[in-house]
Amino acid sequence: MTNVAFVALACGLIIGLGALGACIGIGVMAGKYIEASARQPELMNVLQTKVFLLLGLIDAAFIIGTGIALWFATASPFPV
Known about the structure:
This protein has 80 residues and is an all-alpha fold. Helix content is 85%, strand content 0%. Helix 1 (3-39) runs antiparallel to helix 2. The protein starts with a helix and ends in a 6-residue tail after the last helix.
């Protein structure tokens, strides 16, 4: 395999594993939010604010990883 192939493989792994982690994290967080709001409905508004804040942070981490992977893909540091 060439260096370009390794860069492509690394970019795919960064994006794929980042998406997998973000999806699992959002799924677990949403499930816990539903459980907590079912147990104590009066705290639903407070919990909803925190859920949306964490949702943005989880998505931001995935989008930053995607940006770095695309940067690696286009800025190939290896001489051809």
